[in-house]
Amino acid sequence: MPKNRNAFSSLAAWRRRALSRAVHRGWRWVQESGAVTAEHPGRLRFGRIGEGTRLAFPQGTVFGEPWIELGAHCVIGEQVTLTAGLMPDLDLGPEPILTLGDGVVLGRGSHVVADTKVTIGSDTYCGPYVYITSTNHSYDDPHEPVGRQWPRMEPVAIGPGCWIGTGAVILPGATLGRNVVVAAGAVVRGEVPDHAVVAGAPARVVRSWDPEKGWQPPLRTPAPVPIPSGVTPEQLLALAEPGETPSPSGD
What we know:
7-stranded parallel β-sheet, 2 helices
């Protein structure tokens, strides 16, 4: 191959790398600039947005913000929908419609649709693409398209400390207690007691906590070993080795 062709190929490769780096730097700048926080709310005017809470960019559909209250240190992933009311520009009264407690995490692509009151307790974590709604279409009239029939609305309450797995659906009227685990893909309706694990569609309790007997049925895996305090990031690699528990001093 002629030398000038090699030079041309090298120059083209350098340009592609430079362009790629520029695009990634630009996108990071856009993500940082487009994120919503209490200090930089952009066009969104929530009823409350707590300290340390951040809505990643790009946001999903957001409307009814005056009736949405977000606690402190919440993490809202990209393309998350948060809505209060059936449509934008409604007067929904003096009380909040959608309330997130402190430390709530909503994974990428999740939807929280609150046409009537929806509350999510503090430190509840939702995986990606979770759907929480207070509204369902009715199908009472067999002659009218379902999408044109007036929906039914029931409040939703999710207790503190819950974990809701990827793709789970929380239906109108659902009430989840404290520290409930919802398996990925589960469809939840009705009441779920504290410290329960639910799975399936419709979801049912598959494991629960008994103060005297512990988890029933018993857990099949040992409890995870906490990372010792003071361990450096470099020492964390050693934790993967069987029988290795590095001391904080590195000995």
